[in-house]
Amino acid sequence: MRPAFKEALRELVAREETPFYAYDQAVIERQAKRLKDAFPEVRFFYAIKANPNPAILALLRERGFGAETVSLGEALKAYQSGFLPAEVVLNGPVKPPGWLKKLKAEGVPTLVLDSEADARRVAEYLPGAEVLIRVNPALAVHTHPHLATGKGESQFGVPPAALERVLEVARAGGLKVRGLHLHLGSSLNSPEDFATGWGLLAELLREFGPFAVADLGGGFGLGLKPQALRPLVRPFFDLVEEVWMEPGRFLVAEAGVLVARAWGVKETKRRYLLLDAGMTLFIRPMLYGVDPMVQPLYESPETGVFDLVGPACESTDVLKRDARLPVPKEGDALAILEAGAYGASMASRYLQTPPPKEFLFDGTNWQRVDG
Fold it and tell me: Residues 247, 265: one domain?
C-alpha cells in the first residue's frame, strides 16, 4: 500500500462507516503502463470480472483497453460504460439463445467459441459474427486447482484433436473465424507456464491458419514481470496480424483494499478478532485458499495473534488465520490488501448483505463509485 494512499485511507475511515472497498487510481495506472510498456504492439482487453466498477472501466477504456467479458450482463455493462462492440470480447462455455438474441439487438462483440455446440448455436443466431476458437491445451500450471483452466479435464476450450471439426462447423455456418484463443489459468507467475501453452498455440496457428488474431488470454500473477514474456510474444507477430491479451487481476488487485472494523476479541480454543466484513464481501480466502495480507489503520502498544472472522454464522467465515496485529480497541479499522480483484465483484447477497460501498482515490480526492 502506498504511504499516500494509506494516509488518505485513514482520513476516509474517520468519516465513513465500514465495511467498504477503496481503490488507488495510481496503482491501476501504474499496472496499465507496465503492460503497455512491455507489449506496445498488443491489443489489451480488460477482464472485467476482476472488477466491473464503472469508474475503473472508464479509467481503463481511456487508456486504450477493450473489455473481455464472460456473461451477457458483463457485455451489456461494457456497452453501458462506453465500449463499442468491436472493443468487446465475450468468452465462456455457455451462450444460451437468449443471450445471443439480446446481443443481436444491442451489438455483437467478438465471440470466443468454446465447443462444437457453441459454434452451431452462434452460427444459428448470429450468422456472420466474428469469432475466435478457444483451445484447451491440456496443460498443468502452477496455481490453485480452482484457477487452472487449461487442464485437460477442465470444461473450457476445444481439445486440439477436435479443432479441425469446430473450424469446419463455424465456417460452414457463416461465422468469420478470426483466430485462436488460449487461457491457461489465473495467478500464473512462472514464464515457463506461458512458454509451454503459447508454444502449443503457435503450432496450431501454423497448422490450421492463416489467422488474423492470436488471443493469448491473461492470468498474469502479481509477481510476474511482464518484460519476461516479451521473447515469448514476439514470434506471434510472424503468424498473425494482431496479438490480444486479457489481463484482469494484474491491473486491479493491488489497487484495492477491503476496510473493516474490529468489534471485539473472543477466545475459545482459539483467539478471534471479530470483524464487520467476512465471506459475503470477500470470499476468496474460502474459495481459493487465499491468505490475505492485512495492515492495521490504528496503533497499539501491544501485539497479539488472531484469527480474523466475519459476522456470518458459518464456520468457513474466516478471512485469515494467525494474523499478528497490534491489539485493537473496538472500532479500530484494518485493511485487507490485494482486494481490488474478485472482491466486490464476487460479493453476494447471502444473509441479505447489501452491496459494498466503493471509493476511488485519485491522488487528491475520494469519489464514491459504487458498482
Answer: no
208 and 142 in a single domain? The answer is: yes
Torsion from C-alpha of 194, 290, 67, 51, nearest 10 degrees: -160
One domain, residues 40 and 101: yes
Per-residue model confidence as pLDDT tens digits over 175-230: 999 999 999 887 888 888 899 889 999 999 999 999 999 999 999 999 999 999 99
Handedness of CA 96, 97, 103, 106 (dihedral sign): negative
**Is the bond leading into 97 cis (omega within 30 degrees of zero)?**
no
Q: Please indicate, yes or no, whether residues 233 and 263 belong to a single structural domain of this protein.
A: no
The CATH number of the domain holding residue 103 is 3.20.20.10
- Bridge-based pairing of strands 271-275 and 357-361 is unpaired
The residue range of the domain holding 30 is 26-251
Q: Pick out the chain residues at pLDDT < 50.
A: 141-152
Catalytic residue numbers read 313
Instruction: Please choose, from the candidates 243, 143, 249, 248, the residue with its C-alpha nearest in 3D space to the C-alpha of residue 193.
Output: 143
- β-pairing, 357-361 vs 366-368, is antiparallel
Domain edge (last residue) among 200, 218, 251? 251
Identity at 52, one-letter amino acid code: P
280 and 329 in a common domain:
yes
Considering the domain architecture, whether residues 266 and 181 belong to the same structural domain is answered as: no
Main-chain phi, psi angles of 250, to 5 degrees: -55, -35
Are 308 and 342 contained in the same domain? yes
Which residues are CB-contacts of 287 (< 8 A; sequence separation ≥ 6)? Answer: 146, 346
Same domain, 257 and 242: no
From residue 368, alpha-carbon distances to 27, 121, 249 in Å are 18, 41, 22
Is 339 in contact with 306 (CB distance < 8 Å)? no
pLDDT score, position 149 = 45
DSSP 8-state code for residue 220: B
CA distance 156 to 150: 7
How far is the CA of 68 from the CAs of 33, 45, 246, in angstroms?
A: 18, 5, 6
Q: How many domains does the chain have?
A: 2
pLDDT for 335-356, tens place per residue?
A: 999 999 999 999 999 999 999 9
* Strand, helix or coil for residue 158: strand
